[in-house]
Amino acid sequence: MTLPQLQNLVVIDQDLIDENHGVYYDKRTVEDLLNYGLILLDKPPGPTSHETVAWAKRILKIPKIGHSGTLDPQVSGVLPLGLGEATKALGVLLLGPKEYYGLGRLHSLPSKEKLYGVLNQFKGEIFQKPPQRSSVLRQTRTRHIYELEVVEQKERLLLLRVLCEAGTYIRKLFYDIGEILGPGATMIELRRSRVYQFNESQKLITLHELADAYAEWKEKGDDSKLRKMILPIEHALTEIKSVVIRDSAVDALCHGAQLAIPGILQISPNLSKGDLVGIYTQKGEVVALAESLMSEAEIKDATKGYAFVTKRIIMAPNTYPKNWRTKPKQKDQ
Description:
The protein has helices at about 30-35, 50-60, 110-120, 170-180, 205-220, 225-230, 245-255, 295-300, and strands at about 10, 35-45, 65, 75-85, 100-105, 125-130, 140-155, 155-165, 185-195, 200, 230, 240-245, 260, 265, 275-280, 285-290, 305-315. By secondary structure, the protein is α+β, with helices and mostly antiparallel strands. Strands 2, 3, 4, 5, 6, 7, 8, 9, 10 and 11 form a ten-stranded mixed sheet that branches. A seven-stranded mixed sheet has the order 1-14-12-15-16-17-13. Strand 3 and strand 4 (about 75-85) form a beta hairpin. It is globular and about 70 Å long.
C-alpha cells in the first residue's frame, strides 16, 4: 500500500530499485519497527509523560523512545511515541493542531448570552502566559484557537472542545475565561483527543495492551498483536510534502550530504521554496527531513545544484551501500 504522501508525485527521473538493501516501509520486521516505529498511546491520568515513556521503554526493552507534546500528569489522551530513530521525526507533529476536551467549573452561573459572548472572545489569536507550574519560560505569547465549542453544560459545569495551536495551555484558557466572566473558573479534567492527523477514531494503545502484545511475541513467537500496535514512522509525515530519491543517493544523505538535482526522482506537486519535506527511498522509507531550496518549476529545469538542505537525518547510516566518493587528501608539499 502506497503512503498518501507518496501518491500522485511529479516524476523527475526514473531509476532501478536495489532489492538487496533497505526494506519496504510496510514490510519491516518487528525488530525494525522497534527502531522506526510509531505508537499512538492512550496516556492514562496519573503519571507524567516522562514516566509514561520510561514504562514504555521498560516494556519494549529498547533504549530510546520520545513523545510528541507533553501532557500534564492528570491529563489523559493521545500521546504519540517514536521508537528508536523514529524520535527524530516527531517534531513534525508539533506543526499541526491539537484537540482537547476539557471539563471546568464556573465559579458563578452566567447567562447563556454572556458565556457565549466571552467564549467568542477566545477564538482566533489569543495572548497567553504559561501557568506558574509550567516547564517553560513564563513569557506572554500568542497562540491560535481554531475552534472553541460548548459540548455540554450542566449548571456551573462546562465541557469544552478546543482545537488549538500546539503549546496552548487549556488549564490557563479556563482560568482566563473565568477572569473575563468575573468570579473565575477552574479546569477539573482534561483529555487530548487529537495530535495533528492522529485522533481517537484510530485505535489508541494502552500500556497494558502493549505489555501483553510484547509478551506474546517474546514468549509465543506471535507478533500479530504487536505489529498492529506499531505503525511505520512514515505515518507521522503524511501532512508534509515529499521527495523520492535514488538508492545511490541515500547513504550520502545519511552521512550529512545535501540533496542535489541528480539524486531526485519524484517530488510533490506545487512544491515551493522553503517547504519542509520528507525525503524517501523508492521503498517508502523516510531518510531525512529537509527544506526545499527550489520550487517545482526550478527543479524541473535544473540539471545540477543543491535542491534541498537537510534538517534532520532519520535513517541510520550504512542502511544502503556507499555510492559516493570523498576527495583524496592532498599530500603535503
